Amino acid sequence: MDRSLQPLFDDRQAGKPYPLGATVLDGGINFSIFSSHAREIDLLLFAGEHARAPNRVIPLTEEKSRTGHYWHVFVPGLGHGQVYAYRVAGPFEPKRGLRFDAEKVLLDPYGRAVCCSHYERKAAAAEGSNESTSMRSVAIDLGRYDWEDDQPPAHLFRNTILYEAHVGGFTKNPNSGVAENLRGTYAGLMEKIPYLKDLGITAVELMPVFAFDTQDAPPGLENYWGYSPVSFFAPHPLYSSVASASGCVDEFRDMVKALHRAGIEVILDVVYNHTAEHGANGPTLSFKGLDNPMYYILAKDRSEYADFTGTGNTLNVNQSVVRRMIIDSLRHWVTEMHVDGFRFDLASVLTRDVDGTPMVNAPTIWEIDADPMLAGVKLIAEPWDAGGLYQVGSFSVDRWTEWNGIFRDDVRSFIKSDRGTVQRIRERLLGSQDIYLHPCHSPRQNINFVTCHDGFTLNDLVCFNDKHNLENQESNRDGMFENLSWNCGVEGPTDDEVIEALRERQVRNALTLTVLAVGTPMLLMGDEVRRTQGGNNNAYCQNNERSWFDWSRRQKYAGLHRFVRALLQLRTRFCCRLDGAEKSFREVLELARIEWHGVKLHSPDLSEDSHTLAATGFWQDDPVFHLMMNAYWEPLSFAVPSPPSGDPWSRLIDTGKPTPLDILQPPGDVFRAAAYLLGPRSTVLLTRSANQIQEQE
Fold first, then answer.
1. Is the domain of 332 the same as that of 444?
2. Is residue 580 part of a domain?
3. Which domain holds residue 675?
4. 412 and 380: one domain?
5. Final residue before a domain boundary, out of 538, 570, 602
6. Is 382 a catalytic residue?
7. Which entry of 101, 191, 277, 382 is annotated as an active-site residue?
């Protein structure tokens, strides 16, 4: 190891092993890092974020700087904003899983900020030094920031409406109306908070904001989604409008604080299942060079990696050191960054032991659930992984909630008129009780969605039968092959007004079922204005207009935007007065006694060839709503029950009608007939007004 800049020993102290990371104290910084197999470690100090080489190298020796498996030092005279990194020497013995490379500059796993102005991924993967092109960590004095009495909105899940968004893509488009220097940043997202609040969103679920490797992509493309983490404590620096790592941390906090003031929670999509270091031929950025067999699950051949994530490696999440790092990371984002919850990417990996075998009671899952510092946050699992584990229905015990992938698939199948879907859609509307059998499960623990970042947008779901991913340079092999999509007769965009009307209707059907079903609804960014990715169902490397929110579509699809806005209001604000209290439609659906029908009352057709379903919700003996769904390709007449005393129904939703008749504000249109003619592939909601119900009490 090059120690030509080695200082005299009298300008440092031994320091302490805890806390891990770089802790800014009065008079200096305490550095501590874990490595059980290292022989020597150098702490590199840089004069600034753009420095090509360190100006000081401080050797950490076993005699003066090691306690157990922790290497530490206190360096006087350093403070907030200090740029640093490590070089670690040890055995390179792949057959034992050891991959030390004393020439590689490594990030601190506990670093609170990252700078990457000169970073080159190729240099981190090639032989030789990458000193001048490495990522570096930055020491942050977290106590300097003024939170101004920030308080979390703390919405109950029953009142939550999630909106999955990409920080960069939300405002990156020049037509976003955001100033050029703020587009694609935390500050840019802040400017769109009024849009989110007006739409009716109560929580943004942000795609990965942990610092990630944008160069982890095919040549000429960028990693856009962010599922390529390099740090679990640092916000992604390229989402900041401020040209400093410390400014990035403050800008992220500014965004959280502003969202909280608007009553919107911040939920982070967190990636604790793999890193950007890939497999044996991947770059050495941090964990691989610090203690490879501790941080990763290795294959039987210890020179190879177990890959349950599809990325080349899998974090050893139930190894004690890694488990503690995950808990410490979650605590950091809650206590220091004030986030309100987490969506765990490929959460099934968290159930795998150190050999990759699934466990029934995985310690990491239960430790997260039981941690008192995390007691008030939302926990959402993506309950599957790339290794074949599919655990929908297994996570939602105690505080965990789940992305309900079965809801997604069954709604897609029903609206495109697949056979054998009516029985399944009935279960999905009532909270998927056939899946969530645990007695402690609440239906609010289902995260109901039809689209997310992974797959087609809602527009593309009704415009494409097949994926079109050639731009990803993987010969269209990437992305899901089975999308349960239907192009409505033409592949891709069309000027055919009949097909466009059908597509719009199908979009409204999917949104209506998602929002009205028992559970917590989640919308994908831009679905409310039919955002398209041109049929690309895996746009992870498309940091361009293919993925960005196209704000011109807000005007083009103003009718759909209005529909979504009114639909979310209906879920949360539409009221019947029942038992002397006003109830939202969500509460009515959860509490009502349901009677099922088909086109005829009390005769639901649950056969394989059926495409119709209707439901009447009763409060005591009074019908309070009547929902009808026609997934058939021809109009059908549905019998409608008569409210007591001949009171009329009010029509609030008919997805077969053109805007603005597709959704009406209460009390809606009076409907008195004994039957309702539903157009092909349409959904209708009839309700009784608050006054009518009140009169019956």
1. yes
2. no
3. 592-696
4. yes
5. 570
6. yes
7. 382
Phi, psi angles (nearest 5°) of residue 20:
-70, 155
What is the CB-side half-sphere exposure of residue 665 using CA atoms within 13 A? 2
Q: What span, in angstroms and rounded, lies between the C-alpha atoms of 655 and 679?
A: 9
Shared domain for 498 and 384, answered yes or no, is yes
- Residue 239: which of 182, 175, 162 has the closest Cα? 182
Considering the domain architecture, whether residues 234 and 372 belong to the same structural domain is answered as yes
Average pLDDT by stretches of 10, the chain with 697 residues? 45 86 97 97 97 97 93 97 98 97 98 96 97 98 96 93 98 98 98 98 98 97 98 98 95 98 98 97 98 97 96 96 98 98 96 91 92 95 91 79 95 97 95 78 81 98 98 96 96 97 98 95 98 98 98 98 96 69 75 93 96 92 92 98 85 96 89 95 86 43
Statement to judge: residues 500 and 626 lie in one domain:
no
pTM: 0.95
Tokens linked to 66: 């090691």
Of 529, 559, 514, nearest to 657 (Cα)? 559
Instruction: Decide if 385 is catalytic.
Output: no
Strands (E), 390-511: 400-403, 446-448
Tokens of residue 408, six digits:
């997604």
Q: What is the pLDDT of residue 564?
A: 98
Is there a cis peptide before residue 19, judged by omega within 30 degrees of 0?
Answer: yes
In this prediction, residue 697 carries a pLDDT of 38
The C-alpha atoms of residue 550 and residue 93 are separated, in whole angstroms, by 50
Does a cis peptide bond (omega within 30 degrees of 0) precede residue 76?
no
Q: Which amino acid is at 591?
A: L
CB 213 within 8 A of CB 230: yes
pLDDT of residue 6: 43
* CATH assignment of the domain containing 249: 3.20.20.80
Catalytic residue among 42, 250, 277, 345: 345
